[in-house]
Amino acid sequence: MGLLIDEIYARESEEVRRILKANFTEGALQELCGDEHSVIHVVEAEGQVVAFLFGWLFHYVFTMYWIYSLKEYRGRGAVKQLLDYLEADLKARGCYKIEMYAYAEQNKFLDFCSKLGFEKSVLIEQSLFGFKIQKIFKYIGPLDTARMEKRVKIIGEAGQGVKLLSFTLAQILTQLGNEVSLSLNYDAAVRGGTISADLIYSDRAIENPLIDEADVLIKFTRTRQFFPAKSLVIDEGFCEEGTVSCSIKSEHGTSYGFGDVALTVFGSKIFINMIALGRILRYIGINILLLNIKELLPQRSLEKNFEAVKYGFNYRDDV
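The structure assignment produced for this chain is given below.
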């Protein structure tokens, strides 16, 4: 990873490279590779890893984060071998699409990917560090609505930032080239009422904006209301009595506890929605490095909001 970052981001400052490397220490890599959504393949020669790729598989879409080969093994088929093996593996898992975000100045790499069937999508004019990023993709399986649509249901109470969370998430998904539908629903109560958001994103136009079963359920309020979902629940009810923040649990029982971090780290429980935003972005495979997220966050308490997103994403910039 160190060699990859030094080479790809050679035009950037040493500080940018330092921050990027901080997210790929040995401990950070062990954590990433142990996640249920992570996919990593390597090529070995004489007992040495000479090429690797790492990415994220969520809801039939594989987002490739990194692919790299040692210089002395380039032109010998290692990367092509990796991509062929990856495609066969993903097809067996029912995946229909591979996408990645390449440094826009990597013309040779983009040309190489074009020869392998990848097409250009949106050009991100300004990432977190200011440089341009090109999104590319390749369809590898049959396209149908059930696979292409990802459904996110958010349920909370007035004052918990459900509207801000859902709008910010919708903006991020839109800027990354997705078709996005967002519907907000309020109950009749003026104060303390429930608010819910149905957020759907897809490669194609969305016909039905309402969700009957969520792929991801985000639930901030203690309520007996049941809503069917496939994975990932954020629920105030999982917390001990009297806590002000929430935990995140997947259907497999994995728990990401926030505890009272919104208060102890950020000074107010109002930041819990931004902590949740960071965690959800990581869960669905969207790297916060891709966009200048600060432009999408409320200007009031901007730095704390941004720090809360990074905390939820588990982004390291101070190692």
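Interim note for the steering committee: The chain has two domains: 2-139, 149-313. The chain has ten helices and 13 strands.
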